[in-house]
Specification:
single chain, mainly alpha, about 0% strand, Protein Yjbj, Chain: A, about 70 residues
Length: about 70
């Protein structure tokens, strides 16, 4: 799956994002509004991981939701 689909249907994907990254709040998800860079930044903040790892985690998650 590509990110454009997630971004275009963000309200439908917010639940799946929260299942994967439970430390993200509803407020976080509302502010992200489907923006991949913002999602990676919030994952970095909430989980204390590097940007590269956050990006890898997003890629892995995208592969699972096909």
């Amino acid at each position: 799956m590509n990110w454009d689909r997630v971004e275009g249907n963000w309200t439908q994907f917010k639940g799946k994002v929260q299942e994967q990254w439970g430390n993200l709040t509803n407020d976080d998800l509302d502010k992200i509004e489907g923006n991949r860079k913002q999602l990676a930044g919030r994952i970095q903040e909430r989980y204390g991981i590097a940007k590269e790892q956050a990006e890898k985690d997003i890629d892995t998650w995208l592969g699972k939701i096909n």
